[in-house]
Amino acid sequence: MEPVGFWEWFGLLLLLSIPILNIIVLIVSACGVGKPGFTSFCRAFLLWMLIGVGIVFLYGWLSGGDFPGIINPNKNS
User: Fold this and answer.
1) At what angle do helices 21-30 and 36-62 cross, to 10 degrees?
2) How far is the C-alpha of 27 from the C-alpha of 43, rounded, in Å?
3) Could you tell me which of 17, 44, 20, 19 has the C-alpha nearest to residue 30?
4) I need a surface site. Which of 22, 42, 71, 74 has the fewest CB within 10 A?
């Protein structure tokens, strides 16, 4: 098994910086397509993304769903 090279990591991180495409690349790579180093990284990255989304929804639920008030607290909505 050959280690993952610099340019391969560079290319993966470049793809992960593009919105929408990053989710597709993460899901495909997490399913085992590609090198084992990429698979583990993508699984961990997806887990962190899910935790982040969960925290955002939990915060929204606890704040009464007032997301516009969070973005612009001085505006009466």
Assistant:
1) 130
2) 8
3) 44
4) 74
